Amino acid sequence: MTPEMTSPCRTPDDELPVAGLLALAMTGFICIMTETLPAGLLPQIGAGLHVSSALAGQMVTAYALGSLSAAIPLTLATQRWRRRRVLLLAIIGFVVFNSVTAFSAHYGLTLVARYGAGAAAGLAWALLAGYARRMVTRSQQGRALAIAMVGTPIALSLGVPAGTWLGAVVGWRLAFGVMSATTLLLILWVLAKVPDFPGLAHHERLPFGHVLRTPGVRPVLGVVMAWMLAHNVLYTYIVPFIAPAGLAGQADRILLLFGLAALAGIWLTSRTVDHALRLSVLASLAIFAAVAGVFAIGSASPAVIMIGVAIWGLTFGGAATLLQTALADAAGDGADVALSMNVVAWNSAIAGGGLLGGIMLDIWGAASFPWAVAGLAAAGFLITWQARTHGFPSGHRLGQQQTEEQNGTA
């Protein structure tokens, strides 16, 4: 017998379960903090584990490998589990593996713990968007997802610098310990405010290949790859890129400006994702490509860099909400499986952006970045433009159903 796809008791249509959605946002915050915390503490970690900073940097690599390799198999393996159990499994994974990292005196054990933390993140990222959508009515899904995704830019703009500062003041081990303690509080938050949902019955489970072949899924994943590659080529190597403008010593302020603009982008996206998703993606990619063009000719100007970074952040802030909404809509009942593919595509683009940017930096210098960014953003724009039937359809994302619901309540 198929479990009934029930929703929790909801408040009126114009209200959202904000406390529960913010618990999901906090989960995303923990994911990003756990991933990036070692980057600002490599000398201290290297000294503590008696390895070089380069070897300490492989903690980030191990985390990424965990996310890439585990997201899809863990999502497929837990399709039948109740959803809150899966969410708590991922969160408990952070408690366990961050605690091991905090106490480990052996480099190999630390890498294993970081791989495990990455696997927990892969499962969490595959779950969060679909979970947020199930907590609300269809007409609220865009706004709900925007709230659930707000933890990412907050972590990048405020959390990472704060975590780096904390690690420098009290030590990197205590910084990871604080992460574990915070995650314990998150478990209580989830138990109190996040509703539970049934998993899929055995006959409802959708195989990987079937979901991948669903019309619209591959175009959205193609846009994810193009957009995130473009973003990460520039974001990963922001310091050498802004150096000609004399801003290398102000990279923290530049990244803060980007993060604050990204927060504004999330708010803007929450207002447009339902009725203008296609237009929002096209506009974001077109503006991003235009900013890259301006960077190509004016990267030596501090004013151009500051204004350009702000606009770039504004266009990027809503990317996760827009792309995950489009992907989940296209995949239908296979949303969780499709979103696990998104985790792989997103993390592959992060790694690919670092690799491509490093090669370009060595061969042509940082001045070559804007040209690659513009080309990749244009490729994403073209894929979106062509996917007008499946993937990025025109009009309200709920289509005729939304019209009927409005007529029925009139």
Describe the structure in your own words:
The relative contact order is 0.14. The longest helix has 29 residues, at 335-363. 76% of the residues lie in helices and 0% in strands. It is mostly helical and 410 residues long. Residues 1-13 and 400-410 have low confidence and may be disordered. It contains 19 helices and no strands. It folds into 2 domains: 18-204, MFS general substrate transporter like domains (Growth Hormone, Chain: A, Up-down Bundle), CATH 1.20.1250.20; 208-397, Growth Hormone, Chain: A.
In short:
With 410 residues, the chain is mostly helical. It contains 19 helices and no strands.
Topology of this structure?
Layout: H1 18-36, H2 42-49, H3 53-56, H4 58-77, H5 83-103, H6 107-134, H7 141-148, H8 151-170, H9 172-193, H10 208-212, H11 217-236, H12 238-242, H13 251-272, H14 277-298, H15 302-317, H16 319-331, H17 335-363, H18 369-386, H19 399-409
Helix pairs in contact: 1-6, 1-7, 1-8, 1-9, 4-6, 4-17, 5-6, 5-9, 6-7, 6-17, 7-13, 7-16, 8-9, 8-13, 11-16, 11-17, 11-18, 13-15, 14-15, 14-16, 14-18, 16-17
The CATH topology assignment of the largest domain is: Growth Hormone, Chain: A
Tally of structural domains: 2
- The fraction of residues in strands falls at under 5%
- Give the terminus-to-terminus CA distance: 36 Å
Classified by CATH, the class of the largest domain is: Mainly Alpha
Helix fraction by DSSP (H/I, runs of at least 4): over 70%
Mean pLDDT: 87
How would you classify the helix and strand content by structural class?
A: mainly alpha
* CATH homologous superfamily identity of the largest domain: MFS general substrate transporter like domains
